[in-house]
Amino acid sequence: MFLLEKLPYDYIALEPYIDTQTMYIHHDKHLQTYIDNLNATLKSYPQYQSWSLEELIRKQKNLPEEIQTPVRNNAGGVYNHNLYFEGMAPAGTTSFSGTLADAILKTYGSYENFLAKLKAAALGQFGSGWAWLVSDKKGRLQIISTPNQDTPLTMNLIPILLVDVWEHAYYLKYQNLRASYFDNWAKVINWDIAEKRYESNIQQ
């Protein structure tokens, strides 16, 4: 059975960039719903209940046809949200530095250019979805977007950083201003976590 992971910071910790009410509803309500739906989907399939989120996502095609879509949507929803919440931190508590920062500067030329390209992916995602910084096993970076709760795992890519552009992630504070939400989300990126994801997954 999958359980709701505790936030690594207080609901208020990302103010004023991500507001307290959105954090509470997004984490305790939206994410909990994905967890509940995933557990309900797997209830009659005990042979898959021990699989990790990554296994469920990567091996979707091995599942019975009748649960492939709900597993894709709900396992993806849990996985993406866990990464998203873990990937933020109170402003000013982490810094853009290290191996990942070097790779970003090498790939995109400057931090500003990197953010501009990630923002373009976030704003260009039609409807609900995510914008990602991902890596392959050799450490080569790229920026992509995915619809709904799709993940880079099915593309054999490693998630490094992601921003949620479903409306529930920002609408209470920013309404239709997705660009403003992105600009402020960028101020609470947890670069320590992003660095850890990058370093632990590339082939040395």
Structural overview:
It is a single chain. This protein is mainly α. Strand 1 (129-135) and strand 2 (141-147) form a beta hairpin. It contains 8 helices and 3 strands; from the N terminus they run H-H-H-H-H-E-E-E-H-H-H. The protein has helices at residues 20-42, 53-58, 65-86, 99-108, 111-124, 171-174, 178-185, 191-201, and strands at residues 129-135, 141-147, 158-164.
So what's the overall shape?
A: globular
Tell me the major beta sheet: 3 strands, antiparallel
Biggest sheet strand order reads: 2-1-3
Helix content: 40-55%
Number-wise, the strands total 3
Radius of gyration: 17 Å
User: How many helical elements?
Assistant: 8
- Uncertain runs: none
Spell out the blueprint of helices and strands.
Elements: H1 20-42, H2 53-58, H3 65-86, H4 99-108, H5 111-124, E1 129-135, E2 141-147, E3 158-164, H6 171-174, H7 178-185, H8 191-201
Antiparallel strand pairs: 1-2, 1-3
Helix pairs in contact: 1-3
Produce a short descriptive summary.
The protein is mainly alpha-helical and 204 residues long. The chain has helices at 20-42, 53-58, 65-86, 99-108, 111-124, 171-174, 178-185, 191-201; strands spanning 129-135, 141-147, 158-164. A three-stranded antiparallel β-sheet has the order 2-1-3, with helices on both faces.
